[in-house]
Amino acid sequence: MLTQPVDTLLITRWSDVQHPTLKNITEKLKQEGFRPYQWIGKPNQRVAIRSHGFTKVLFVVEGSLELTVPTLNQRIILRAGDRVDIPTRTRHGITVGANGVIALETLNR
Fold this sequence. Notes:
Largest sheet: 8 strands, antiparallel
Distance between the termini: 23 Å
CATH architecture: Sandwich
Shape: globular
Number of helices: 1
Structural class: mainly beta
Radius of gyration: 13 Å
Helix content: under 10%
């Protein structure tokens, strides 16, 4: 995997030989000690800007989403296999891609 920090975010792009699947992404997160849960977003669904009291880990399994980070004035496209670690109290919003998204989420306290 290729890891690329974006100011306060950590973006990791998929670079494994195997195609990203629910099974292998779940296994990767469990090996890190996480307990991931699945999130399904409908096509073009929007999730309002918000923040959390924990670091959020989001891993796209299928489809795509656009992550908006107002403090960085950036929009970042995440596709199958891409991961983002969003630090505590970082304001962010999501717009799901035209084909929807299946993602795994977990939190890192």
